[in-house]
Design a protein that fits this description.
By secondary structure, this protein is of the alpha+beta class. 55% of the residues lie in helices and 17% in strands. It has a domain at 124-185: Roll (Nucleotide Exchange Factor Grpe, Chain A, domain 2).
Length: 185
């Protein structure tokens, strides 16, 4: 009995390990790691869910953007076309008049031209009329060169106005340009 008593006495003299202090038992360490793993898996699942939602939202924004671009291409001219309807109505009305005098016909054409100019102004379409300016190959198309008292390379005659949409050339002006004087020979 004394052996049993001495072993229990020595066990009693050893301090009991307290939870969370010192060396924890393998079961508590496993439980702690399992808790951390469960938390990490929950965080990973939340991050995956957030990523999937963000990916879906990005796809929706991209798709809506493509639809908006397609609509802009399809209906972008709607305002311009609607503004031209008044000009078309004026032309149609002029064609239905029975007894037209030259003066009334001219007035109708002038009114229609003013309507068209108004539409052009509204949509930033400006004429290129470069009479007397230096030839610019980006805005002018030279049809021919002519002998002229003007400086060589200067626009002498505008055969057809060109047009700009904002600052982009819709159609270059058709022009004749002053030629370099021929050398006497």
């Amino acid at each position: 009995m004394s052996d049993a008593h001495s072993s229990s006495a020595s066990a009693a003299s050893r301090p009991e390990p307290q939870a969370g202090v010192g060396d924890a038992g393998p079961e508590s360490r496993i439980a702690e790691l399992e808790g951390k793993l469960a938390a990490a898996l929950a965080d990973a699942e939340k991050l995956r869910d957030d990523w999937l939602r963000a990916k879906a939202e990005t796809e929706n924004v991209r798709r809506r953007g493509q639809e908006d671009v397609a609509k802009a291409h399809r209906f972008g001219l709607e305002g311009f076309a609607a503004a031209l309807l008044a000009v078309k109505d004026s032309l149609d009305a002029a064609l239905t008049v029975e007894n037209v005098s030259i003066e009334s016909f001219k007035e109708g054409v002038e009114l229609t031209a003013r309507q068209l100019d108004s539409v052009f102004e509204k949509f930033a379409i400006r004429p290129i009329a470069p009479q007397g300016e230096k030839f610019d190959p980006h805005r002018h198309q030279a049809i021919s060169q002519v002998d002229s008292a003007q400086e060589p390379g200067t626009v002498v005659t505008v055969l057809q106005k060109g047009y700009l949409l904002h600052d982009r050339v819709l159609r270059p002006a058709l022009v004749t340009v002053a030629a370099r004087p021929r050398e006497a020979g």
